[in-house]
Amino acid sequence: MEKQKKGKIEKLSDFFERVLPDSITIAFILMIIVIILAIALTGAPLITSTENQLSIVDSIGQNFWNLLAFSMQMCLASILGTVVAKSPPASKILGKACAVPNSVLACYLFSCILSGALSWIHWAVGWFGCIVIAKQIMVQAHNKGLKIHTPHFVATTFIICLMMGQGPSASQIAFGATPGYLKSLVDPSTASGLKDYYTIIEVACQPKAIITELLAAALMFILLYKMRPKEDAKFFDGMTKERLIDYTATPDLSADKSTLAKRLSNSAVIGVLMGGLFLVYAIKGLITKGFAGFGINEFNMILFGLCLVLCLRPRIFGELFKESVTSVWGFIVQFPIYAAIFGVMTGTGLDSVISNAFLSIASTRTWPSIAYVYSAFLDIFVPSGGSKFIIEAPYIIPITQQLNVDIKTILMSYGFGDNCTNMLTPFWWIAPCGMAKIDYHKVMPYAVVACGVSVVYFTIAMFFWV
């Protein structure tokens, strides 16, 4: 029998597997690149800091643990989101909802539209929710005999999620809506020309922003769907037995009450009472602070409350939580590395060197596109929208004023840049790949192509915003 040749996607996936190490090694390589650039471009000392400049060693050491709180927030968001989805009531509801699509195309459309909408409402909801939705749809598709390539389906859903991530909860939009915050990031002269705040409605909901995002999502969907591996391919990576077991795992609902300890562990009163308290607090905060004040902590509080209420018994909650812990190892070990990269960028002044290089070629017409490219480039080294904005704001806001460009345009341009290179950064694929039980290298062919096309699209699109 003639051996079937691998298709282009399989060959590209094999190529990335040969040349790209695991995600933690990539993080270390990025750190080495930043260190070399800092020494070469800023003359940063390696060990001993000077009066005006931190050394490489001090920049790393003083910033290494700065993302511990954020690491725990991301771990909890990932685990709690999975527990909510696996809880008995949610599993039934998701199963019925995700059983609606009856064709492969319908499965892709349903997953991407729902995930994209969730992502626009809140990036964390979309980020974790999209994989929960994708897994349920893949299970239902498998039950109907529909063949879906798992890495491609996860990649497509998550990339669309990224394309639609510049809604009300995006970091720079939330910063802009916080009274006085943008002014605190710039010099007094620049601050005097800024409004006290820019509302979420006037930034995230401006028609050209929504149209730009929707067109980008549609373009990405068409592109990625065209790249879908053929169902009859020998190397088709569909639903495996291991994935099916993981995706459909349900907790033991039996309630052993033979001892006091077991009665307490299986007490629905405890679960509902504690969950209800958490939900009341979160909802109260949402009412008093508004959507602009709804951050990752509030999101996690709602998830925590939902987990307890939906699981009913503390034992079920604990078992599901333990099952989901393995998917977040990357957050724990990689976030300190990215915090160190962030420290070297700011401590040595490398961020100023890079920003000045971009700003030196800007004009009123080209500035939104240049700001987009700069944001996308810096995101590779500092893949945290909130942290990176603090680096960029002291430079991009003054030049925005000098060139008479609308600050709302630059806030969106910044966010679009984040979205695109997030596709390439292992940092953002930790949760999707971990939750879906797929190898990071399997999504890279789709991510690289989508990133390249989106960079061209947004660079051109932002040129017409002025």
Short description:
The chain is mainly alpha-helical and 466 residues long.
Q: Can you offer a commentary on this structure?
A:
The chain is mainly α. The protein folds into two domains: 82-230 and 326-463, no CATH class; 267-312. 72% of the residues lie in helices and 0% in strands. The protein has 25 helices and no strands. Helix 7 runs antiparallel to helix 8. The longest helix has 24 residues, at 440-463. The protein starts with 7 loop residues before the first helix and ends with a helix.
Give a quick set of tags describing it.
466 residues, mainly alpha, 25 helices
Q: Which structural class should the secondary elements be placed in? A: mainly alpha
Radius of gyration: 23 Å
Element pattern in H and E: HHHHHHHHHHHHHHHHHHHHHHHHH
Tally of individual domains:
2
Instruction: Please work out how many helical segments DSSP would assign.
Output: 25
Helix content: over 70%
Topology, pairings included?
Layout: H1 8-19, H2 23-42, H3 56-63, H4 68-86, H5 88-97, H6 104-121, H7 123-143, H8 150-163, H9 171-177, H10 181-184, H11 188-191, H12 200-204, H13 207-226, H14 241-247, H15 260-265, H16 268-289, H17 296-311, H18 314-324, H19 329-347, H20 350-359, H21 367-381, H22 385-402, H23 407-422, H24 426-436, H25 440-463
